[in-house]
Amino acid sequence: MADKKGAVVRQASFLMAAQMISSVIGLLYKSPLHVIMGDVGDGYYQFAQEWYTIILLISSYSIPSAVSKVMAERLAVHQYKNANRVFRAALIYVTVVGLIGGLVAYFGAPFFLQESQDAVLALRILAPTIFLSGFLGCMRGFFQAHNTMKPTAISQIAEQFLNAAVSVLAAYLLTRPYLGQENLRARYGAAGGTIGTSAGVLTGLLIMLAVFLVNRKLISRRIRKDRHRNVEPYREVFRDIFLMVTPIILATCVYNLSSVVDQRIFASLLTAKEVPSETIASQYGLFSYRCKTIINIPIALASATSTALIPAVASSIAEKKQKDAAEKINECIRLILFLAVPSAFGIAILSYPVMLMLYPSGDVRTAAVLLSCGAVSVIFYSLSTVTNGVLQGLGHPGEPVKNAALGLVMNVLTVYLLVGWLDIGVYGVLAATVVYSFSVMILNGFAVRKHFGMKVGTVRAFFAPLRAAVIMGIGVAAVYWGPRLLFPQVFGRYLVSAVLTLAAVLAGVLIYFVTYLKMTGMTDAEIRKLPMGTRMLSLLRKLHLR
C-alpha cells in the first residue's frame, strides 16, 4: 500500500485517468444503447437511473468518503487497531442501510415514478445493486484512507467495462420481441441497460476483495504492532461514522437531488399541459441521457480529485499542518481548472459534431444546442465538487449541505419560472442546472475561506487556463468549422465529420497544452503529476516542444 505522504495530485491522477477511461467507455456504449432503445427509452433509462442514484446516495454512496476520512485521521497518528475498527463498523453499517435502500428501491419504484410507470422495471432491477454498492464503497474507502487510489482506479475501469458490455447485450436481447412496439421496446431496453450496472458493481467488488486479500498480511502485521492502549469501543466508532456519514449523505444527496427534482417538476408541469408521456421522456432524454453524459466526463475528474483530497486534507489537519493542507488544496484547484476550463470551451464549440458522431439519430440539433449552452456548468460543477471535498476534509461536512440546499431552492424556482410560466420546455431544465451549479460553487468558495483561515487561490488560478482555452477554441473552430462551412457536402457526411471531429479534439489538446506551458512555465515535475503526465512529457520532447 502507498505511503500516506505521497503527493495528493499524483494519487488524484490515478483516479482521474480511471475516471477518464471509464467515462469514455460510458460515452461509447451509450450510443449503441440509444440505438437499441430509442429516444423514449433514453428517458425511461434516465428516470430510473436518477432515482437509483438518489437512493444510493442516501444508503451507501458517501461511505468511501466517510470511511477514508475517519480512518485517515487514525492512520495519521498510527492507530491501526482503531482504524481497523472503523472499517469493521462501516461494513456492519452498509449491510443494514444497503438492505433497507434496496428494499425501498424495489417496493417504492411505482411511487417514485408515478408519471413514468414504464421505468419501474428498470429501477427494480437496480435494487440489488444498491446493497452491493455499500460493500464496494467500504473497500474503496479503506484503500483511499491509506492514500492509495490504484485499487479504486482499476476496479472502476473494470466495473465500467462490464457495465457497458452487459448493458448493450441485455438491452438488445430484451428488445428483440418488441421491435414493432415503440413503448415496450423503450421499457425493456431501459431495463436491459440497468442490468449492466449491477454486473459492473459486482465485478468491482470482486476486484477490491482480491486486492484486500493480497494486502491482508501487511494489514494484520500493522495491527499487531500497534501499541496504543486507547482502543476505541465500537459505540464510539459507530458514533464517529454516523456523525461523518450523515452530513456527507445530506450534502451529496442534496447536491445530486437537483436531477430528480428537475425530473419530477418537468414531468408534472408538462403532464398538466397534457403533453404525452412519450414526448416528455423523449425531451428529457435529450438533456439528461445525451448532454449530461458528455458534460459529466470532465466533472468526473473533479470527483476523483475530491476523493483523493478528503483523506489527504484530513491527515494534514490531524497532524496540525495547516500550510501543508493549503498547498494540497491549491494544487488540486489548479489541476481542476487546468482540465475543466478547456473542457467547457471544447464542448461548447464542438457540441454539434460530437452529438452527431455519438447520437446520429433523433433531434441532434436540439441536443447540440443544449450541450453547447450547458458547457459552462462543467467549470461550476468541477469547482463545487472539489470544494465539497475540501470542506469535508476540514471537518465541516455540514457546510456543503447548507450550500446545496440553497442552490436547490434557486434550481426549483428557475424550473417553475422557465418551464411552468415561460413554457420553454427542456431549456428551462438546462438553465436551472447552470444556476444551481453556479450557486453552489460561489457558496462553497465563501465557506472554504471562512473555515480554513488561510488564503486559497481560485481566482488567480483561473486566468492562465482561460487565456489558453480561448486560443485553443480559435484553433479548434478553425480545424472543424473551417472545412465544414467551406465544403458542407463533403464534410457534412457522417464518417468524414467524425474523423474531422477527432482531429479537432486532438489539435485542441495539443494547442491548449503547449499554450498553457508557455504561459505558466510548468516544470517537468509538475507535468508528471498530471494524468498520464509522463507520457505527455515524452511526447512533448519528441515534438521538440520541451
Walkthrough of the structure:
The chain has about 550 residues and is an all-alpha fold. The chain has 20 helices and no strands. The two termini are about 35 Å apart. About 55% of the residues are buried. Mean pLDDT is about 80; it is low at about 1-5.
What's this model, at a glance?
This protein is mostly helical and 546 residues long. It is 85% helix and 0% strand.
Strands, helices and their partners?
Layout: H1 8-61, H2 63-75, H3 80-112, H4 120-145, H5 150-175, H6 182-214, H7 216-225, H8 234-272, H9 277-318, H10 322-349, H11 351-358, H12 364-374, H13 377-393, H14 398-421, H15 426-452, H16 459-486, H17 488-491, H18 494-520, H19 524-528, H20 533-542
Task: Supply the key terms.
single chain, 546 residues, mainly alpha, 20 helices, 0% strand, globular, disordered N terminus
